[in-house]
TrEMBL record, chain A:
GO cellular component: plasma membrane
Localization: Cell membrane
Similarity remark: Belongs to the binding-protein-dependent transport system permease family. LivHM subfamily.
Keyword annotations: Amino-acid transport, Cell membrane, Membrane, Transmembrane, Transmembrane helix, Transport
Transmembrane region(s): 12-37, 57-77, 89-105, 142-159, 188-212, 224-256, 276-299
Name the UniProt record assigns to this protein: Branched-chain amino acid ABC-type transport system, permease component
GO terms classed as biological process: amino acid transport
Organism of provenance: Paraburkholderia dioscoreae
Membrane topology: Multi-pass membrane protein
Molecular-function GO term, any one: transmembrane transporter activity
């Protein structure tokens, strides 16, 4: 029980990290109508760039520089490639980002090699923040939560209050009218794409000390982020937040638990062959997001807060 | 290919249309059948068997992507699970090897019945994401759950252990390859026949306008479900062909790499033509076998090639060839010559520049084993490994490529101007 509180907090911080990724994805999806398949690759690129910058100029400059660099890369991708295939429809755009994910993965291997790197936490953020019944909650995780929440608050404020946010929101629904008023809508698209990829990079810099920086990190997190977006409902920021927290908490609690599948099933009075009963929930944790996806689709195909599909 | 029946209806052009319709089949049979008799090395047989497997896989994928407009990121689940069912039945029940692909196909279709019910609850982008999730689920389950995939080792079969069939034990690679090639052709013929059925026409209608399709009384979700099951059937066949080839089904058979590979093959080949995915499968296995044996940068080249295809010709190689043969037929080779020669020169020069630069970078990062491949390509220039010389060469090649591209674009513009004036005069004449 005592570790439950800390595990829950860990789950929330992981969920908020997931939300930083899924927020960028949702932002790009609702603006451009394209699901950026390379989103997790930008997250990985952010982690690697952040690692290199942090090694030279320290963690705090990495926190600023890496998102800027990756945002520029994202803007270049949108400006020079994505815009060219837009005439051929969303499928071509999705395929392009799919190819870009392959290419980014290879470029990362080319630039930083295959061996895993481990990012260091700055001294201020090292160590436990507080302990609950003997279980410590890391200071870095608290920092992660603060940054995520601050970032999302800023994003929300920009979208809701500022003039730029007004233009973005108008371009979302009435692109031609906004264009007629003299705003450069394609440039707004580029800006949104850059902002989304920069968010992913920020998540990469922040998340790097918790995980290992390796060329496989995009795939391992990428599909979970897509699952989160579908569970929350495509294009819904609130849904993405709820689903991120749900997936983050459930997965973290499953990893930290030491219950086996047999124990869970014995509650329902059923049992499986011995090999299956011996599986622990921690071993099954990688499956949980996908099982949640299946359950969600069976109960509510449009996701938590998704709008009804036009041609379901 | 889609308009073949219409053009064959014109009686005057019927023999020619028939010949054109049969030409790809002949090419496929020659491609699969002739090389083993000329160079009977084992690596060639392995390569051709992989290609045949990928051809069936890509064609089954095109039922979803090309015919119904469903983008799937988890197609390997069906082929891998189908192969798994086939391997377990072969080991336990002793199904004859000749019929094993059919068993695998039925296993794949059963998985399609189950997973397709979940995934076809949505269409469009959501369908793509759900298949990604389901593919990851199957892949993760294959790693975690015991006695499904036999853990990390996978489930192995001994293809020679079954009953002999007409004196063939299928132990030697040649006999196994013959079986794979025959099944590949059978599956291609079945898929071609399927693509001509009214059901696939309904699938096309669902792809193009689901609302209208629903209005004429066909339930889009049910059609999509049917297509997913059919496609899973053929994916299961292809998975079993791979099983016969390598005698092993492992967690990699359901992995995301394989799902990505079939997507790349189908898109590179082109989804609008029946034989597009076949061409794409040949290209993909070329990359994953031939290029990969030379350099570890093959994934980079594949990704780059994929992006180039998506940007330049979203309808794939088949669409590219169709467009350009139509143009050459319209203007004659002599008028188009300049544009194509300059275009080819630009493509070659840029490829050389990219290959040199990439090999150089890989050699710098990964050391000597890549250096060998680099020397192979760089020796032509006599550059060795001097960075300055190499950099200059790359820049020079890129600049020359740019120059040729400039001339190619100019020739294209010339051609386009000619076309517009030609259509004007034709309009006047009418």
């Amino acid at each position: 029980m005592q570790s439950f509180v800390v595990n829950l907090l860990n789950g929330v911080s992981y969920g908020l990290l997931l939300f930083m990724l899924s927020a960028g994805l949702t932002l790009i999806f609702s603006m451009l109508g394209v699901l950026n398949f390379a989103h997790a690759s930008f997250y990985m690129l952010g982690a690697y760039v952040g690692f290199s910058v942090a090694a030279r100029a320290g963690f705090w400059s990495a926190l600023v520089i890496a998102p800027l660099v990756v945002g520029l890369v994202g803007a270049a991708l949108e400006r020079w490639l994505l815009r060219r295939v837009r005439a051929h429809g969303h499928l071509a755009e999705l395929l392009l980002t799919f190819g870009a994910a392959y290419l980014l993965g290879e470029l990362v291997k080319l630039g930083w090699g295959l061996s895993p790197l481990s990012a260091t936490v700055p001294a201020v953020l090292d160590g436990p923040l507080f302990t609950v019944y003997g279980a410590a909650f890391a200071r870095y995780r608290a920092f992660m939560m603060v940054v995520s929440l601050a970032m999302l608050g800023a994003l929300h404020a920009v979208l809701r209050v500022s003039k730029a946010g007004l233009i973005v929101r108008a371009a979302l629904t009435h692109a031609s009218a906004v264009e007629a008023l003299g705003h450069n809508v394609p440039r707004v698209f580029t800006g949104v794409f850059a902002a989304g990829t920069a968010l992913a990079a920020l998540a990469g810099v922040i998340g790097a000390p918790l995980f290992v920086i390796e060329p496989g990190m995009a795939e391992s997190l990428g599909s979970i982020v897509f699952v989160v977006v579908v569970i929350g409902g495509l294009g819904s920021l609130g849904g993405a937040l709820a689903a991120s927290l749900l997936v983050g908490c459930v997965q973290t609690l499953a990893v930290a638990s030491n219950v086996s599948l047999g124990d869970v099933l014995s509650i329902f009075g059923t049992s499986l062959p011995a090999e299956w009963d011996a599986l622990t929930l921690a071993q099954l944790a990688p499956l949980i997001p996908y099982l949640l996806l299946v359950a969600m689709l069976a109960l509510r195909p449009r996701g938590l807060f998704g709008r009804r599909d036009e041609h379901a | 290919m889609r308009e073949a029946p219409d053009s064959s209806a014109l009686s005057a052009t019927a023999p020619r249309a028939l010949r054109r319709a049969l030409a790809p089949w002949l090419a496929l049979i020659l491609f699969l059948g002739v090389p083993p008799f000329i160079w009977p090395q084992s690596w060639l047989l392995a390569y051709l068997a992989q290609t045949a497997t990928m051809i069936v896989f890509a064609l089954s994928y095109n039922l979803l992507l090309g015919e119904t407009g469903l983008l799937s990121f988890g197609h390997a689940a069906y082929s891998g699970l189908g192969a798994l069912v086939a391997a377990q039945l072969f080991n336990r029940v002793g199904v004859p090897l000749v019929l094993l692909p059919l068993v695998g196909g039925i296993g794949g279709a059963l998985c399609g019945l189950l997973l397709g019910f979940i995934s076809t609850r949505r269409a469009g982008t959501a369908f793509a994401m759900i298949t990604l999730g389901l593919g990851e689920l199957v892949a993760a389950a294959a790693w975690t759950l015991p006695d499904w995939f036999g853990g990390e080792a996978g489930v192995a079969i001994d293809r020679a252990s079954g009953a002999q069939w007409a004196g063939w034990s299928f132990g030697p690679a040649r006999e196994a390859y013959a079986l794979i090639a025959v099944w590949c052709l059978l599956a291609c013929a079945a898929l071609f026949a399927l693509s001509r059925t009214p059901f696939m026409r309904l699938a096309n209608a669902v792809r193009d306008n689901p609302v209208r399709a629903a209005a004429i009384g066909c339930y889009p979700r049910r059609i999509r479900y049917g297509v997913v099951v059919l496609s899973a059937f053929f994916a299961g066949i292809s998975g079993t062909l791979a099983l016969i080839n390598v005698e092993l089904v492992s967690a990699e058979s359901v992995g995301m790499m394989r799902s990505g590979a079939v997507l790349i093959a189908t898109v590179i080949g082109g989804t609008a033509a029946f034989f597009g995915p076949v061409a794409g499968a040949v290209v993909l296995t070329f990359f994953s076998v031939v290029v990969a044996s030379v350099t570890r940068a093959w994934l980079f080249y594949l990704g780059l090639f994929f992006i180039v295809v998506v940007v330049i010709s979203p309808d794939g190689l088949a669409g590219f060839v169709q467009r350009h043969t139509a143009r050459v037929a319209a203007y004659g080779w002599r008028r188009c010559r300049a544009a194509y020669l300059w275009g080819a020169a630009a493509a070659l020069l840029w490829t050389a520049a990219v290959v040199l630069a990439v090999q150089w970078a890989y050699a710098a990062q990964f050391g000597a084993d890549e250096g060998a491949a680099l020397v192979g390509t760089g020796a032509l220039m006599g550059m060795g490994a001097s960075p300055l010389g190499l950099g200059t060469t790359v820049l020079l090649l890129a600049a020359l490529g740019g120059l040729s591209a400039h001339y190619a674009i100019r020739a294209q513009a010339h051609l386009a101007a000619m076309r517009s004036s030609a259509t004007h005069s034709a309009g006047d004449a009418r």
